Amino acid sequence: MRKVGIYYAFWAHEWDVDFVPYIKKVGKLGFDQLELNGGTIVHMTAQQQRDLKSLADEHGLTLSYGIGLQKPFDVASLDASVRRRGIDFMKKMIDAVAIMGGGMIGGTIYGYWPSTLPEELDSKQPCWDQSIKSMKELASYAGERNVLLNVEVINRFEQFLINDSHEALAYVQEVDHPACRILLDTFHMNIEEDSFTEAIHRVGPYLAAFHLGETNRKTPGTGRMPWAEIKQALDDINFDGPMVMEPFVMKGGQIGRDIGVWRDIVKDPDLDTLAAEAASFVRNNLC
Ligand code: MN
After folding, report:
1. What's the pLDDT band for 199 if we cut at 50, 70, 90?
2. Is the domain 4-285 a CATH 3.20.20.150 member?
3. How many angstroms separate the alpha carbon of residue 122 from the centre of ligand 1?
4. pTM for the whole thing?
5. Ranges of H-type helices in the chain
6. Could you report the per-residue pLDDT of 176-187, keeping only the tens digit for each?
7. What is the 229 CA–ligand 1 centroid distance (Å)?
């Protein structure tokens, strides 16, 4: 049975928050997994990291981690000192996750976010090559520490290196390490893929995690995403990774700004109820 998870940022306006309240409540709302900000745990002490993991264990929750690397940490940069800073930051994150028992880190871990092709370039190839080199080093480091690095396919308006399933497959095959896998997200797929089925079949055994959201990033089950088709395709490839929903419905704060939420997408939302209903929808329709 696939695990059902949610990204904590559904309830938050800022990326750096205390995760304890979310760990205490998401199990009751019907979730098996909570995705946290990988950037935040880097700045915690080892004891704080262990305490967070213990609390998650007490509540029967699996933790996973998401990150969109910032520009000063761009592991695809043409500037070697920027790449080194990014690689060192990712290694600290991998160390933190290793202390917390290992697990998955996903997101824009192969470049930075949000990003666009450098003005002086006409092709992404130089950035791609640097990214592959960085990821080979990171995957090797992660693999020795029971950590999986999942490159997330992100739409063209937020990122330029890996925009669809073809590029993701080429990327992980070039990295060629079992600790580097793929994360697909229905919100981005809806923009870039010709077909949900073909994209899922294409990445097949390389698909390690799946993000869920409606076309406007509302909670799963409230929009027009073709969930039955998506479930069938996941079944076809025997996908057994986590299904983590990543809804955003509130404007405000740095999260609202970074995600591009400029209006309240749901008026006066009861977030816990929306989350619980979505968990139930996913369990009944996608697991
Ligand atoms: Mn996502």
Report:
1. very high
2. yes
3. 27
4. 0.98
5. 20-25, 38-42, 46-58, 80-99, 125-143, 165-175, 186-192, 196-203, 227-236, 253-259, 271-285
6. 999 999 999 999
7. 19
